[in-house]
């Protein structure tokens, strides 16, 4: 059996589909509520238990430093409801993780309340929010 261009394209497309490659194409269709519901997986969300460190005013929405920490968490989620793509970051921690924290820079489209959620090993989910005033938006919105 000869390998034709068509056969190669079909098998390559099937491989990418099986790996979940096209999933990111619909990331902007996910609402903040859907991202939070998927992360919580039916658990009740309680306030507190998460430390969210951000400046209250971001002069440049292209590079906003953020740090999220939750002692003992198995996963952290950052959500920006006013961004074109609402879920910003997801970090999972294994049993050997020394600290459960995430420090990075994110983009913010406009002034909004950024949410940080932590899923604990017992299945509970904790949440904290912080308002950030964005002077120059960073998502082209």
Automatic annotation (TrEMBL):
Protein biosynthesis as UniProt keyword: no
Annotated ranges, domain Ig-like SoxY: 39-139
Signal peptide: 1-27
Annotated InterPro entries: SoxY (IPR032711), SoxY_sf (IPR038162), TAT_signal (IPR006311)
Lineage: superkingdom: Bacteria
Keyword Signal in record: yes
Record keywords: Signal
Pfam families: SoxY (PF13501)
PROSITE patterns named in the record: TAT
UniProt-recorded name of the protein: Thiosulfate oxidation carrier protein SoxY
Species the sequence originates in: Roseobacter sinensis
